Amino acid sequence: MPEAVLSTRGLTKYFGAVVASENISLELKLGEIHAIIGPNGAGKSTLISQICGNIRPDLGSVFLKGADITKTSVRFRSRAGLARSFQISALAMEDTVLQNVVLGALGASGQPWRFFNSVMSDAHLKGTALSALESVGLTSVAHKRAFELSHGQRRQLEIAIALTLKPKAFMMDEPMAGLGAEGSSRMTRFLNGLREKAPILLVEHDMDAVFALADRISVLVYGKIIASGSVSEIRKDQRVREAYLGDYC
Amino acid sequence: MSIVLIAEQILNGLQFGVMLFLMAAGLTLIFGVMGLINLAHGSLYMIGAFAAAAVASFTGSFILALIGALTAAAIAGAMVELLVIRRLYSKDHLDQVLATFALILIFSEGTRWVFGSFPLFLDIPRYLSGSVELPGSIQYPRYRLVLIAAGLLIAAGLGLLITKTRLGIQIRAGENDREMIAALGVDISRLYTLVFALGSALAGLAGALVGAIQSVQVGMGEPVLILAFVVIVIGGIGSIKGALIGALLVGMTDTLGDIFLVELLKLFTDPSTATSIGSSIASMAIYLLMGAVLVWRPSGLFGASP
Amino acid sequence: MINEKYFNSVIVLLLLLVPAWATASDEPFTITLITRAVVFSLAAVGLNIALGLGGLVSLGHAVFFGLGGYAMGILAFHAQTYSALFEWPFLIEGTKSMPLIWLVALIFCSIAASLIGFLSLRTSGVYFIMITLAFGQMFYFFSISWPKYGGEDGLSIYVRNGFPGLNTLIPLHYYGLCLVMLFLALWFSARLKKSPFGLALNAARQSPERVETVGLNGKRLKLIAFVISGAITGLAGALFADLNRFVSPTMFSWQTSGEIMIFVIIGGVGRLFGPVTGALVFVSLEHFLGGINDYWHVYLGLFLLGIVLLGKGGLVGILCGKEKINA
What we know:
heterotrimer, A: alpha/beta, Rossmann fold, six-stranded mixed β-sheet, B: mainly alpha, two-stranded antiparallel sheet
C-alpha cells in the first residue's frame, strides 16, 4: 500500500461555540482522487483552508510526505508542493495568461528580487510557463488577459500555475462551479488525467463528477466525517443517504 | 504642577474629546454604512461655523446660530451626497480620497470667495460666558462646561438612535450587510443621503460650537478632520463606541501629553530643554498613540477584524 | 486614441523644447516653473511605484519629500554656518555638495520608509491610508515644534548647493540636472515594471492570495516597493529644497502628500508617464489659472472631480486608452 502524500490527523477547529471541523483524519495517496462531499456549511472550505495554512486548527496536525506542516505558512506549504485552486479564481486578472503562469515559475524559482532584467524574456521562466500551459491546453490563449477567460479556462490556468511549482498534491475547491454541463464534462476529463501528475483532494458539489472521478469519497456533515469509502460503498451507505444524498442515488 | 492645573487640563481634554467625537461620529457612520472615506467632512465643520457666524451677526441669537449651522451643514451634506458622493460608493478608496480632496478645494475656495479671507468671530452669548467655580475651588469657563455636557448628551442621543430607533436598525443592518437591507425593502439611496446629512449636521454643529472659542476661518476644518480620522482609526472604523472612546483618548493625550511630558523630562534635564523636547514630542503624541494602537490591533480598538 | 509611445515622446520633447525656447527668448521664470514641474514629476514617479504597481495608497509621501528637503536644509545650514552637525561620537559637518546631500537623503528616506512601511503594512485598506497620513502629521508637527532648524519658519539657504562640473546657479543648468534625475527615475521604473520583482508586485496588488500560493511573500514585495518609492520621492524633496533654497514644515504637510497623489492620479495611476503628465498639467493650471483668478482652487477641484468621475484612468488613460500588455 503506497504511503499517503498528504494526511491530516485529528483536525479540530472551533469558531466560537460552533465546531467547524471535528477530529478529521484523512489521507491522500499517490495517483488517487479523494473527494470530500457534504451539504453546504459542512465545513469543507474550512478543512481545505486548514490544510493549506490559511486557518490554523485548534487541535490536530497536517502532514505532507510524512513531514508535519501544521505550523507552517501558506507560502511554505506552496513551496513544499501543496497546490491550491480557489473556489473564486485568485488570479492577476489584468495580467496575461502567460504572465500569470510565469509568476508561478518565478515563485518556484524563489528569486523575485531582481529589479532590472525583463521577466518575460527570461528563457527558463518562460519555458517552464509555456510547458505548463501546454499541459493544460491553454497555449492558444497565452496572450489573452486573465479576465477574458471563461470560468473553466480560469480553473485550468490556476492548475497551470500550480504545475510550475511541481506540486505533490492538489487541493481543489469546487472546480466545477459555474462551468455548465459541457464545461463540467471537459473538466472531468482533464482532472482524470491530472491525477497522474499529483493526487487530488477534491471538494465538489457536482455528484456526477465526483462519482466519475473519485477513488475514494469522504462525507463531511457538520464538521465531522460520517463515512469514508469507495464510490459504491458511499452510494450504499445508509447514513449518507439519510444525512446528505437523499434521493440522489 | 498643582491639582487645580491638572483638573483644568483634564476638563480641557474632555471638552476637546467630545467635540472630536461629534466630527468622528459622522465620519465613522459614513464609512461604516457606505464604505466611503470622506476627506470633505472638515469642510462641513467649516460650513457649520460660517453659517453660525453669519446667522449670529444677523439675528444676534446664539441658539438660532446653532440651528443655522445644523441646517446649513445638513443641507450642504445632502446636496454633496446627491451630486457627487453617491457616484463614489462603487469606486475604490483612491478615487474617494481624490474626489473628496477636490471637494475640500471647492468648498474652501468657495467660502473664501463668499466671506473673504479674514477670520470671522462668533461670540459666546452672555448667559454662557464667565466661569463657574467647581468643587476644589477650580475656576472653569462656563461655556466649556456646556460644550462637555452638550457633547455627552449628543453622544447619548446618538447611542439611543443607533440602538433603539428604526433608522438605527437600518444603519446597523447597512453596516453588516448591504444586500440584506435592500432585501428588507429599505430605500438605500434615501438611507445613504440621510446618514450623510446626519453626519454633516454633527460636523456643522461641532464647527459652530468650537467656532465660538476659536476664530471662524477657511481651513479650520482640516486639522480637526485629520484628528477625527485618527480618532476613528484608533476606535475602529464604523464603531460609534470606538469613536467616543477614541475621541476621549485623543483629547486627553493631546491636552495632557504636553504638561506631563515636560514635567517628566524635567526630572532628567534642565527646564528649558525639557520644555522644548517635551512639546516637540507631545505634538506627535496622538500620532504615536495611533501608531501604537494599530501595531497592537491593526483594525482599531473596536473594529471588526478583517 | 493616441499611441502611448507617441504621447510619451511628445512629453519628452516638451521637457526639452520649452526650456530651449525660454532660454532663447530670455524667460528665466519659465525655466524655474518647468523645473518645479520636473521636480514634482520626480516625486510623483516615486509615489507611482508604491501606488501604481503596489496598490499602496500612501497619503504620507510628504514624509519623504520633507525628509529629502530637510537633508538638504540641515546639511547646507551647517555648511554655511561652519558648525558641526554633531561632534560626538565622531565629527559630522555640513556640506554644500549635491551628490552627498542626495546620498544622505536617499539613506534617510530608505530607513524612514522601511520603518513606516513595516508598521503600516500590518494594516490595509483605509487603515493603511490613515496610518500613512498619521506618520506624515507626526513629522509635520515635529518639524514645527523643533526649534533648532527654524521650527515653523523653516530654513533658508543663501546659495544653491553645488554639483561638480555645473554652475547650479544658472537656471538652465539646474533644470538639466533635475531633468536627468527624472529621466533616470523613469528609466528605472520602466525596467522595474517589467522585471521579475515588478511582475510579482503587480500580482500582489491584484490578488494577494495568488502570490502567497506561488510561495512569494506579498508583504515583503510591497515593503520593498514602498522603500524604493520613498527614496525617489525623497530625492525629489532634496531637489525641491535646492530649487527654492528653502525648506519648511509645509513640505511635510498632508496637503503636500495630497498634491503628490494628485499628480499621479491626474496623469494616470500606474502609467509610466502618468506622474509627469499630472505634474506638468498641475503646474500649468496653477500658473495660468492662478494668474487669472485668485480662487483657482475651485477650478482645480472641479477638474479633479471630473477626472475621477470620468473614471478613465487619468489623462494618459483618456488620451491613450488602456495600457498595452507589456510582454
